[in-house]
Amino acid sequence: MKNRKIIFVLALSFGMFAVSCSSDDNEGETIIPIQGKYNLSKTGKIVGGEEVLIDAPENAAGCTRDYLELRLSNTAVIGDYEGTECSLTETSGTYVRSHNDLTITIGNLSTTSDIMNLTNKELKLKDKTTGEITVYTR
How far apart are CA 91 and CA 111, in angstroms? Predict the structure, then answer.
């Protein structure tokens, strides 16, 4: 009788473990929060099936790197450093995240990108229209 109870408890535990693991599938969607400030690092495209990335030419030499800040309020802020004085221009808009899509709207211009990678250290986006890849780091 004791053996039956132990076997029953083990079978029940194993069954609960197996069921709970299979329902955790997020279908490839990243679960890391997207809010934060990201520094522009690299840009590029996919050529011949491989990513070709270069240091972002948009970053002005001798200046802090340009950035993208995504706030909890769904506000997107793009920071652009320019010139020898490294003057900062900030442009604000909104963003919406839907699964692995990120849509940023600044004024009348709206761009939608696939979130290729989102970790605590990197945000990699691929523009759905142009195919351009942009890599931001924290």
Answer: 15
pTM, 2 dp: 0.76
Whose CA is closest to 111, among 120, 102, 100? 102
3-state secondary structure at position 44: strand
CA distance 64 to 74: 24
32 pLDDT band (50/70/90 cuts)? Answer: confident
Q: Which stretches within the chain are classed as H helix? A: 2-22
CB-CB contact of 53 with 60 (8 Å): no
Length of the chain: 138
